[in-house]
Amino acid sequence: MASEQDVRAGLRRAGQEHLLRFCAELAPGARAALLAELAELEPEALREHCQRAAAASARAPGPPPDLGTRLRPLPPGCVGSAIRGDPAARRRWEDEGFRQIALNKVAVLLLAGGQGTRLGVTYPKGMYQVGLPSQKTLYQLQAERIRRVEQLAGERHGTRCTVPWYIMTSEFTLAPTAEFFKKQGFFRLDPANVVMFEQRMLPAVDFSGQAILERKDKVAMAPDGNGGLYRALEDHQILQDMARRGVEFVHVYCVDNILVRLADPLFVGFCVLQGADCGAKVVAKAYPEEPVGVVCQVDGVPQVVEYSELSPETAQLRAPDGSLLYSAGNICNHFFTRDFLHAVIREFEPSLQQHVAIKKVPFVDDAGNLVKPLKPNGIKLEKFVFDVFPFAKNFVAFEVGREEEFSPLKNSDSAARDNPVTTRRALLSQHYLWALRAGARFLDTHGTLLPAEPELSGSEDPPACCEISPLVSYSGEGLEEYLRDREVKAPLILDEALAQVLRPQDS
Ligand code: UTP
Q1: Atom of ligand 1 nearest to the CA of 112
Q2: For residue range 317-370, what is the model confidence (pLDDT) as tens digits?
Q3: Three-state SS for 439?
Q4: Cα of 223 to ligand 1 centre, how many Å?
Q5: What residue segments make up the domains of the chain, in order of their start?
Q6: Distance between CA atoms of 50 and 330, rounded to whole angstroms?
Q7: Nearest to 76 by CA among 289, 438, 320, 391
Q8: Pocket around ligand 1: residues whose beta carbon is below 6 Å from it?
Q9: What pTM value is reported for the model?
């Protein structure tokens, strides 16, 4: 156990001795816990971190003034699309993606270390259920999509295959996530193929460069951003685990997108056939000021430019066909080769930018009272997962349809967008349209035929409630077998059991 003397000497070197100011009055257990936490912080790194945070927050906010002149859209040659262009090319990409999955070369990696403060629940966001008829959580939907894509690839290639699921958690999310998976029987995945690992935490710092105590016996710590991924991969030897399993391609995604297509064969196949080392799915921005980062080039190098960095004039620029020039909205769906991740860890991680987030951080004042600040008082430094794009040798982007693939759960219901209602509606609208396309006709509870609405506004619920288990269909495929020319009563919950019943007898 670290002695108080040693810890104090280290903190003095770091200029952070104030963190021990309540130490003498703590009960032995709390004191030992505080000393253990502080002993983990390397003095020189702590000093640098606190100084860097204070200096970064003091810098004038906003983009460099000449950014507009350095921007270019991505060259068309490195952009593929799931929604336009040659269907034969899409079939080729999808075939290639399934082939790689069947060869056990594809893994998915979930970024699940965030605190989900905007949603405001006390448990990891993946455990949230948005109120679907099935009451499935985000984690369950994702697990079932993994099982389905494994099944589809296996069937095509006459094999059994595995898409390992790597889950990056943080101090906040690891224990409850691990417990939840256990309680849910890993959603019938093999636990050996679900690998959870923890990202690092960093102290929150006040504007004078002092780390903040959130309790007398606890430093205020926050995860180091989703770009903490790269250090966490190294800390936990995850690339070695991937190598042992023969994984070469990794699909990285955020926990909150209810429509996420895990290990999407189309995206993976496109990236592989393009020889890409790094790729990003994008959706067309809905309107110029939409608050999403834009994938583009800065000085000829691929990068995500945050919406706050785009001037209104630049955001409004149009291409000759009338579409927005900077339209490629980043949806945190990334493709990386294992080799690229290796290069990032080996060479580039230390040069990743640190982004400043100014937050309200609860703290203890000098009298020992807990204060919940009304104004932001703390600085958190975060790295972002996409800041590795400039290091790619062959970067590609892949355009997908928003209605099909992107609806993030960011906020509670009190916000107008990206909340439980909008995400639930996005999923149910998608499933309603899949069912219609497969030939279903919906009846209401009285048996009256409901009018089919093949175009949905997105701002209202679909006319009939229909939820399709990912175990039955991954992206709308295979539904004709159950639904062609069928009259079905809403609500329709098409799960594996009902699929058995609806399956034609001779198949
Ligand atoms: P967000 O930026 O939406 O943050 O994360 P958040 O923590 O989920 O929510 P707020 O901002 O507190 O409301 C985007 C993705 O990155 C992950 C999140 O879990 C989510 O999947 N993330 C974020 C991490 O894995 N680690 C982090 O340190 C931060």
Answers
A1: 19
A2: 999 999 999 999 999 999 999 999 999 999 999 999 999 999 999 999 999 999
A3: coil
A4: 9
A5: 4-58, 68-405, 420-502
A6: 30
A7: 320
A8: 111-118, 125, 168, 170, 199, 223-226, 228, 254-256, 410
A9: 0.96
